[in-house]
Amino acid sequence: MSMQDRRVKRTQRRLASALIELTLEKGFDAVTIRDITERADVGYATFFRHYKDKHELLKDILDVVLIELVELLRSARPASAPDSTGVLIFRYVQEHHEVIRALLGTYNVRQQILKAATATTLNETGPRPGSIVPLEIASYHIVASSIALIEWWLDHNMPYPIELMGNVYEELIARPTNEAALLPKEQPSQ
Questions:
Q1: Residue 189 above 50 pLDDT?
Q2: CB-hemisphere CA count at 13 Å for 175?
Q3: Which among 157, 166, 58 has a CA at the least distance from the CA of 109?
Q4: Would you state the pLDDT for residue 167?
Q5: Which of 59, 62, 86, 144 is most buried (CB neighbours < 10 A)?
Q6: Which residues contact 184 (CB under 8 A, 6 or more apart)?
Q7: Phi, psi at residue 126, to the nearest 5°?
Q8: Any residues with CB less than 8 A from the CB of 31 and at least 6 apart, and which?
Q9: Fold agreement (1-51, 57-184)
Q10: pTM score, whole prediction
Q11: Boundaries of each HTH tetR-type domain copy (predicted)?
Q12: Is residue 160 a contact partner of residue 93, using CB atoms and an 8 Å limit?
């Protein structure tokens, strides 16, 4: 990686960190580009070399989080027991809690997360034979319920350990939804 590439990445990380901090402090709508550049200690004009507005910066942050989560969960499926999925999700949330709080606290972004994660679930699962629950409803349910559980945990300052939250996720959300309606595509039907 060239020195220029490293500088670009460093600037983008600083801008992203500033946006997350400011969003948590005063809400996304109240944050200005001037606020972001001052917090990041980056020139105002420099911001516009990387992003056209704060929404584009937020989308960049969201894209990174979604890619990381999808890769994390895909890598866990074949090698790990299914009950580890919840632990992986909550470990990621704990490690990135400020970013997750900021993203979920922004309504349009929350809706984008719901839409993108539901689409991923639809692509990676199939209907359970004999289920009366349509695949699109089950996919939406598992994602929306997961977001609600994550929000509860964050809103209550993560009162329970990630292992317990992973098990709660499995017992309340993943297992019942999978048993009622979803099959992973790589798993043969029975």
A1: no
A2: 12
A3: 58
A4: 95
A5: 86
A6: 77, 124, 125, 126
A7: -130, 170
A8: 19, 22, 23, 54
A9: no
A10: 0.85
A11: 9-69
A12: no
